[in-house]
Design brief:
It is a multi-pass membrane protein. The protein is mainly alpha-helical. The chain folds into two domains: about 375 residues, no CATH class; about 90 residues, Transcription Regulator spoIIAA (2-Layer Sandwich), CATH 3.30.750. The protein contains 22 helices and eight strands. Strands 3-4-6-8 form a four-stranded mixed β-sheet, with helices on one face. It has a two-stranded antiparallel sheet with strand order 1-2. Helix 5 packs across helix 11, helix 6 packs parallel to helix 18 and helix 18 runs antiparallel to helix 19.
Length: about 525
């Protein structure tokens, strides 16, 4: 197949091969420990996380319409997976639920359910990005100091090791591993200083890639010096080595279809499908906002791709997957231009398992933590906060509420709270947006003219009643509904009550314009 035909069928182009290939290495280095950590937190076999990373990288990248999103096992699903495996009783049975969840997602894609992603408010999406940035900063600080009790990719405030994000910080300061701290500081200096390099050849190399090599080099130097400062394996990436503790055949676990008679399977499948779909839609929407080229991902196509990915992952022993914001952000920050980067990162995961696991097991967690810490800062920088504040309270309040909710709960709960805050904000604004009154042009003694909005719902009744009650005695008021397309019965009733009773009591002259059709509709005399 020619390159042009391959690009037509898959959407993958080699036009930006240098950028995409270098970025794929960085994404791979970050994704690998995340895959293992999420599998560990899910109570699943370690390789199940890598299987999902490979399927998400290769299969979903080929089928997806997103150019920069990266799919794999999601930290947000870890608790659901852990409980589901316990409820079903064994991992092979759980895999059936993953396959069924993929089928449901595929159906949702054909039913065009992906369009729900277009209804997420921008303030909530930006709040989600900022919250993830804050969590990345908080959660990576312990790893920066060499306190690696929690897995690297955890983004939950409450941890599985009887600590939370804040107590882990205290523990980290009490258990500093100085070599890890040295590596982290040097790594951060490189990441920050890389933008000041003027040589284009050097600058074209992603700084995170340099950080990893420097971290490995520093630890190798301490090993050679024999001064006792070298990091032990618990502070280094640890992926299983084939031939030592497992065989190639053990990489794959297959579903046990005998559990299809168990009702729990279907509950778990529906739960995974809904949660994974929402996380994917949110992640893709967020990645699109970060895309320098502002490309839009076809959301229904994304659901179909995720569905096929989960079906395949479940069939060969993988965890459920979603598009993952952290990996997508690292991908963008590393200079990726197209989906080739996500595809190559999946290929690299295969290579890592089969060929170079011992080399990769030399990478310090401190180096990866510095990369994620820097990524967190880019997501939650001060300029974003200032920008949202300047937009005004209607955007700023849902933005802040979303941040706080996600940081102290989890991604989905926080998003739901943020959406509720956004809807409440709209309702409050709608309640106030009953009419327009030009105070500047109004002169004392002239009639008060209230021009009703296009849509006046029952939510506007309280505002209207309050306004009418405040009209002074002996005044004249003109209530103009000629531009209104809809006025709720409750509002009409309140205006009629004021006209027939309240206004007469205060000697107020009322003139109604454009109310005839509404009177007929509601059968007023």
């Amino acid at each position: 197949m020619s390159e042009s035909k391959f690009s037509t069928y898959t959407g993958i182009t080699f036009k930006h091969f240098k950028n995409d290939s270098l970025s794929s290495i960085v994404v791979f280095l970050v994704a690998m420990p995340l895959c293992l950590g999420i599998a560990l937190a899910s109570g699943a076999p370690l390789f199940s996380g890598l299987v999902t990373g490979i399927v998400g990288g290769i299969v979903v990248a080929l089928l997806s319409g997103s150019q920069l999103a990266v799919s794999g096992p999601a930290a947000g699903l870890a608790v659901i997976v852990y409980d589901a495996i316990a409820d079903i009783g064994f991992f092979e049975g759980f895999l059936v639920a993953v396959v069924l969840a993929g089928v449901i997602q595929l159906l949702l894609g054909f039913l065009k359910a992906g369009t729900i992603g277009n209804y997420f408010p921008s303030s909530v999406i930006k709040g989600m990005l900022a919250a993830i940035g804050i969590l990345l900063i908080i959660k990576q600080i312990p790893h920066v100091f060499g306190y690696d009790e929690d897995y690297l990719g955890d983004l939950d405030f409450w941890q599985n090791n009887d600590e939370n994000a804040l107590t882990a910080l205290v523990s980290a300061f009490q258990n500093i591993e100085f070599t890890a701290f040295i590596i982290s500081v040097i790594s951060l200096i490189i990441l920050i200083g890389w933008s000041y390099i003027k040589n284009n050849t050097i600058k074209s190399i992603p700084a995170p890639l340099v950080v990893v090599f420097v971290g490995v080099g520093i630890n190798a130097l301490f090993i050679a010096m024999g001064n006792g400062m070298a990091l032990s394996q618990e502070h280094l990436v640890t992926i299983p080595v084939l031939g030592e503790n497992t065989s190639f055949e053990e990489l794959f676990v297959f579903p046990d279809w005998s559990v299809l008679s168990n009702p729990t399977i279907y509950t778990v499948a529906i739960t995974i499908a809904i949660v994974a779909s929402l996380e994917t839609l949110l992640s893709v929407e967020a990645v699109d906002k970060l895309d320098p080229q502002k490309r839009r991902t076809p959301l229904n196509k994304e659901l179909k791709a995720q569905g096929i990915g989960n079906i395949l992952a479940g069939l060969i022993g993988g965890l459920p997957m979603t598009a993952v914001i952290v990996r997508g952000t690292v991908n963008i920050n590393s200079g990726a231009k197209t989906k080739l980067s996500a595809f190559l990162h999946g290929v690299l995961l295969i290579v890592a398992i089969l060929i170079i696991p011992t080399i990769l097991n030399m990478i310090p967690y401190a180096s990866l933590a510095a990369i994620l810490l820097f990524t967190g800062y880019k997501l939650a920088n001060v300029n974003l906060m200032k920008e949202m504040y300047k937009v005004g309270p209607t955007q700023f309040y849902p933005f802040v509420i979303t941040i706080v909710a996600i940081v102290f709960t989890d991604l989905l709960v926080g998003i739901i709270i943020g959406l509720l805050a956004g809807f409440l904000n709209i309702l409050l604004k709608n309640m106030k947006n009953t009419y327009s009154f030009d105070k500047e042009s109004h002169k004392e003694g002239e009639p008060i003219r209230l021009v009703l909005s296009d849509e006046v719902s029952f939510l506007n009744k309280a505002s209207m009643v309050k306004t009418l009650d405040q009209i002074p005695e002996n005044a004249k008021v003109i209530i103009d509904a000629r531009k209104s397309k809809f006025i709720d019965f409750d509002v009409i009733e309140a205006i009629e009550l004021f006209t027939n009773e309240g206004a007469q009591y205060k000697n107020i002259e009322v003139e109604l314009l454009g109310f005839d059709e509404f009177h007929k509709k509601y059968s007023f005399k």
